Amino acid sequence: MVSVFKNLVIHFRTWIKFLIILAIGLGIIFFIVFSVYKPVYAVTISGKFLGYSNDKSELQDKINEYMKSGDSDHVAFVDIEVLPDYSFCLVKKDLETEDDKIFNEVIETGITYYKYYAILVDSEEKYYVSSYQECESIIQQLKDKDSENKDSISYVVKYETDLKEFTDTDTVVASLYVEKKPEVTIPQVSNSTRLGSVVTSINVNYNYVDVGINFRNPISGTVTSRFGSVSSIRSSVHTGLDIAASTGTPIAAAAAGTVTFSGTKGSFGKLITIDHGNGVMTYYAHCNALYKSVGETVNQGDIIAAVGSTGNSTGPHLHLEVRVNGVAYNPRNYFAY
Ligand SMILES: [Zn+2]
Asked: Which of 132, 176, 234, 321 lies at a CB distance of 3.0 to 4.6 Å from 240, suitable for a disulfide?
C-alpha cells in the first residue's frame, strides 16, 4: 500500500520534471523564432498582394475613417467596393512593413461622393451651395423681397462624384431676384385732354376670327367705302368701313368696354376707341364731337360721339374699325351692314 503511493509520487515528480523541461524548451524555441521573425499581416485585395501591415487594426480604422469623410471638404462618403483581406504570418524581423503604401493603394480604388445643394428655378439647377442653411436663407430672402419668382425656387440635396463651384448666398439672391411687375391699372383720367394711346398702323387681316362679342351697329346709314379698298383720297388700303350719315348723328358703343383714346389723331380726325378686352377694340373716326373720355367705361349702346367729317374726309360719315391686337379686321364680319 505504501509502495503504491511511493510509486505515484515518483511518477508525479517525473511528470513535473518533464513539463518543466518542455516549457523551457518551448521558451527557447519561441525566443529563437521571435528574435529572427515578427508577426505581421499580409494584406491582399482581390487576391493581389499589397504588402505587410504592422498594425492591422490601425490600418482598418484609417481606411474606415477615410470612407466616412475622405480627405477634402464636402465629402459625403467614399465608396471602396472591395476591402482588403488580412492574413497573419511571420516574416523576418528586418522586413519593412508598408502600412502607408497599403492605405494609399486601397483608397485609390475609392470613388468619392460629395454632398452639396442645388438651387432650382422651375426645377432647373441654377446655383450650388454647400449647406441646407444657405438654401433656406436664399429662399427666405427672396420671399422677404417679394421676388416675382419666389414660388418657383426650391432646392435639392446632391450626392455627386464631381464637386460643383459654389456661389455665395448674396450673389444667388441678387441674381435670382426679379422685381414684381406693378399691377396693370386703367389710367384715371379727369378730362378729355389727357389722352391714351392708339394703334393706327395699316395692318389688315382679311380672315375671319371669332372675337366672341355680339356687336351692335353704332349708327344706321349707307356703306360708302368697304374694308380693304383703295381710293383716290387714301394712299393705302382702307382699314375700316365707312358709313355715311348726317353730321351730329349719335354714335353708339358697339359693345361694352373702356375708352382708350378720345381726341384728334391725324387723318382720323376726332377719334374715339373702345377696348372690349382680349385685345379686341373698335374705332370710331371723323367724329364731329366726342362724349367720352379715356378711362371711362361704357355699356353697349351708350352714345359716345357724333358723326362728322373731321380729318381726312370728304363728307360726314363714320369710319368704323375692328382691331384685334392692333390688326384691322373686316367690320362686315362683325356688323350688320
Ligand atoms: Zn374710312
From this structure: 321
Compute, in angstroms, the gap from residue 131 CA to the centroid of ligand 1.
68
Is pLDDT above 90 for 135? yes
CA of 286 to the centre of ligand 1 (A): 8
Q: Which helix (H) or strand (E) holds 272?
A: strand 270-275
Separation of 297 CA from ligand 1 center, angstroms?
25
pTM over 0.70: no
Nearest to 260 by CA among 192, 330, 331, 328: 192
Residue 211 has pLDDT above 70, yes or no: yes
Q: Residue 29 has what DSSP assignment?
A: H
For residue 256, how far is its CA from the centre of ligand 1 (angstroms)?
Answer: 22
Class of 204-333 per CATH? mainly beta
pLDDT tens-digit readout, 270-312: 999 999 998 899 999 999 999 999 999 999 999 999 999 999 9
Range(s) within the chain of domains with CATH label 2.70.70.10: 204-333
Please tell me the distance between residue 204's alpha carbon and the centre of ligand 1 in angstroms.
Answer: 13
Residue 14: Cβ-neighbour burial (10 angstroms; 0-12, 13-18, 19+): exposed
What amino acid is encoded at 210 in this protein?
A: D
Using the mean position of ligand 1's atoms as its centre, give its distance from the Cα of residue 257 in Å: 22
Q: Contact, 113 vs 159, CB < 8 A? A: yes
CA 313 to ligand 1 center in whole angstroms:
8
pLDDT digits (tens, 9 = 90+) for 238-249: 999 999 999 999
| Residue 40 to residue 52: CA distance in whole angstroms | 6
Q: Write the pLDDT tens digit of every residue in 213-257.
A: 999 999 999 999 888 877 666 667 899 999 999 999 999 999 999
Query: From CA 272, how far away is CA 294, in angstroms rounded?
Result: 9
Grouping H, G, I as helix, E, B as strand and the rest as coil, residue 132 is helix
